[in-house]
Amino acid sequence: MNNSTGSMLSNDEREMVRDLILLPYIDTMVSKSLKEVERSGNVLSRSYIIAGRYIQKRIIQEVYQLRQELKKRNIKVVEDIQDDFISYNMIYFRGYQERFGLTRDVMRTEISLRLTHYTSELGGVLKNHFK
What we know:
The protein is an alpha+beta fold. The chain has helices spanning 11-40, 45-72, 104-129, and strands spanning 75-82, 86-93, 96-103. The protein has one domain (11-129). Strand 1 and strand 2 (86-93) form a beta hairpin. Helix 1 (11-40) packs antiparallel against helix 2 and helix 2 packs across helix 3. The longest helix is centred in the first third of the chain and has 30 residues, at 11-40. The chain is globular and about 55 Å long.
């Protein structure tokens, strides 16, 4: 059921909000890793950098798509407060507002899953390229 005209957020919309919150964290982690690789002098550093940049490009694409879709649905996400265990954001949607919290453990798990997805996606691209 499409709930974009209703008052409550749908599960799909909540996932979009979650992803919009998590993707900048993933981008920061990838950026830090790329800097470490650049300094490492590793023989495969060029390959790692290409892979990291591919992932960053995908993150940028997804953030753009999420912002566009949430804007269409009249949903705005604003960072609120963070403590040691929970990151809070305010969601403004269709005349309502809601505080959305993500625990650090959930964030770590979701980030790990998303990085695995991007790595697998890159593997598929490379596999198709070398057919």
